[in-house]
Amino acid sequence: MHWTSAAAVACTPELARRGWEAVGVDCVPAAIEAAVAKSRGAAGLSYVVGDVTRLPSANLGTFDFFLDIGCFQGLDAGQRLSEGDGVSALANPGATVLLLSFGPSRWRWLVEGASQEEVQTAFAGWEMLATKPADTAGLGWPMNQTAPRWYRLRRRT
Hints:
Layout: E1 2-5, H1 12-17, E2 22-26, H2 29-38, E3 45-49, E4 63-69, H3 77-90, E5 91-101, H4 116-122, E6 126-133, E7 149-155
Parallel strand pairs: 1-2, 1-4, 2-3, 4-5
Antiparallel strand pairs: 5-7, 6-7
Helix pairs in contact: 3-4
């Protein structure tokens, strides 16, 4: 099963189309309503209004894959720890997290960001498998100045 958060909700239908049983989570009801309307009738797909800092309370089940595109970077340190704890609570052994975040920059007040250290701190029970620069093509200023990165982590068993 696959879980997505916030901006990643837009990716949920594509993952379901590719055979995943996918659950999109966003704290904004209008975003969930729009996603449901856009993907009506798609198999293996559901959406939940929920808070990534309180995932276990949403009774979502357990997952093998988590996708976070830009949600983590907008949280404060305590909220990041809560997201990491919640994902850990819902993760099956060997689960994977794929997380995209802008990097910390002097533009942080405009575009939030997170460092690799901040990701590793929040996902303490996870092994960092890979980190690589994200494509900045099409990003305008100041996002193209933030060194976005993809992080791939696996739940330690």
